[in-house]
Amino acid sequence: MDQPSLPQVASGYIPAQILYVTVELGIADLLADGPLSYTEVAEKTGTHPRTLRSLLRALVGQGVATQVDTDQFALTELGGQLRTGAPGSVREQIMLTTAPELWRAWGDLATIVRTGEPSRQPGTGWTPLEWLLQDPEGSVKLHELSGQSTRALAPGIARAADFTRFDRVADIGGGDGTLIAGILAAVPGLHGILYDLPTAVETAAPTLSEAGVADRCQVVGGDFFESVPAGADAYVLKYVVHDWNDDQVTTILRNCRAVMLGEGRLFIVETVVPPIMTADNPIAVADLGVLVGCGGAERTEDEYEALLEAGGFTLAGVKDVLLGTEPSGLQVIEAAPAA
């Protein structure tokens, strides 16, 4: 596939906003049962008819819709991915990645690059991630989206970490419990602790019950910047470390170290940045994304080793997480308590 030209890259914000408005208005859901005229769609969405027609025409250009006649538009198979709850739906992903707070934050990129500090919301001082976690609807969407990918990866994470060595594993910052449910399902007899903010873990019960592991998992609400639960011999941080700066990560690691026994293990599940970046590696944009959204960073193995040392650990190894038999792009970083 040919690389897009630089002007095409620079105008990428236009289709992004077209898709955001489309899912925000629920247009794909309205067209799911068949073609409608643009005036019908405008009436149902409370929008300006002529402007709504322009939006539908733009969706035709993106392959999301087709124009049946001068007035009517229909949804394509690709456009079906924008429907609420449809198989393979990307609606929630688009809603999050183009959310107004994150959209505004990327507009601050020049300042962010100059200062090294994330964008913050006027008034509250929140980063986009903090805003999402504070917003009940946004928090649910965030954990649901994370859960979709985690569900498929959990067996590979369990194999890479070899949780058969342990009696109890604590998933720190585990959201709705998708990861711990997958780990416990993959390792019969293992017990778990799910720990995250109360607003996150309150959605965990259905996830744990559906996986048949609710009787083996304790659910605890709290703040990992304050403390983490004792009683586990393995602690997991998946997609937690990259959300925070070095000082914040060190605090989290030290809190884990404070409750771990000498034979315990810590597992950080992230994408390890290669020392030399190549053009086909998407982690470079992801690295910038976590800086913009929350002040975090994707890190190299050497950087993880230094963080672990600051938190009271020594690096014990790094293993790829497989999705089936193929590399997933994620790694499990294993650490042991320092003497």
Describe the structure.
By secondary structure, the chain is of the alpha/beta class. The protein has 16 helices and 10 strands. It has helices at residues 6-10, 13-25, 27-31, 38-45, 49-61, 91-97, 100-106, 109-115, 128-134, 136-161, 178-186, 198-201, 204-210, 246-258, 283-294, 301-311, and strands at residues 36-37, 65-67, 72-75, 168-172, 191-196, 217-221, 234-238, 265-270, 313-323, 326-337. It has a 7-stranded mixed β-sheet, with helices on both faces. Helix 14 (246-258) links the parallel strand 7 (234-238) and strand 8 (265-270). The radius of gyration is 22 Å and the shape is globular. The chain starts with 5 loop residues before the first helix and ends with a strand. The model has no long low-confidence stretch (mean pLDDT 93).
- Note poorly predicted spans: none
Strand order of the largest sheet: 6-5-4-7-8-10-9
* Shape, principal axes of CA atoms: globular
- Major sheet details: 7 strands, mixed
Q: How large is the radius of gyration?
A: 22 Å
Element order: H for helix, E for strand:
HHHEHHEEHHHHHEHEHHEEHEHHEE
Give helix % range: 40-55%
How large is the count of helical segments? 16
Count of β-strands:
10
Average pLDDT reading? 93
Q: Structural class, from secondary structure content?
A: alpha/beta
State the distance separating the first and last CA atoms.
52 Å
Percent in strands: 15-25%
